[in-house]
Amino acid sequence: MIKYIEKLVKKLKKSEKGQGMVEYALIIAFVAAIAIVALNNGLGQAVKNAFGGASDMVSSASARAGSWAAANDTSQ
Question: The pTM is what?
Answer without folding.
Answer: 0.43
